[in-house]
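Sat 14:20. Reprocessing the chain from the morning session after the first attempt stalled halfway. Input below, unchanged.
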Amino acid sequence: MRIAIIEAAYYKEISAALNLGVINTLKEDYGIEVSSITTYSVTGAYELPLVAKWALDAEKFDGIIALGCVIKGQTDHDAYINQSVFNHFTSLALDYGTPIINGVLTTNSRDQAWARAGGNDSVERKSHKGEDCAHALMEMIQLKSKLA
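Finished this time. Tokens:
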């Protein structure tokens, strides 16, 4: 099994925490070898769908997890980015028939993002969306194999 993780580096520490959650969950809960996981880094969330398409075109991966964070600012910029990225993930997954799990956090603050990326020294953990994404991907891959 081959898995691609595409990570937006704009909020690098948050994306790295999400990535670590994905990798640890895939290893510990599903026995996936680290050598079967390839991580690609892009500048920001807007670039994620294009790299996902390239990964799908390469036909090397059973599934993709896209990670990143878009934090609301003083303009509507976040809404345009989020809508575009999310719509493209859905289109790509439907067009290629390969699971793409959207792990892009959409929050109002950096603290909200950290709370969903496992927490840190100053923010309590509410959840870990990286772990959630790993579970979702494996469920989709297993479901696809049952339906094939």
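Residues 3-147 form a domain with the Rossmann fold fold (CATH 3.40.50.960).
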